[in-house]
Amino acid sequence: MTACNRTPSHPTEYYVGPNGSDSAIGSDASPFATIHHASTVVKSGDTVIVLDGTYTGDILTTTSGTFGHPITYMAQHPWQAKLVGTRTGDNTKVWAQDGDYITVQGFDITGPDYNGIAMEGIYGQGIGNRVHDIHPACDANGGSGISANGAATGGEQIGHNDIIGNVVFNITHLATDTGCGVTHNDNTDAIYPQTPFGNTANNIVLNSRQGIASWHAARNEVIVGNTIINCDFGILVGSGDSHATTNDNTIAQNNIIVGASVYGIVEEGTTGPNNRYVDNLLWNITGTPVQLQTGKISGTITADPKFVNYTGNQTGDYHLSPTSPAIGSGLAFPGLMTDYAGIARPQSGPMDIGALLHSGTQRPLQ
Question: 269 - beta bridge partners?
Answer without folding.
Answer: 239
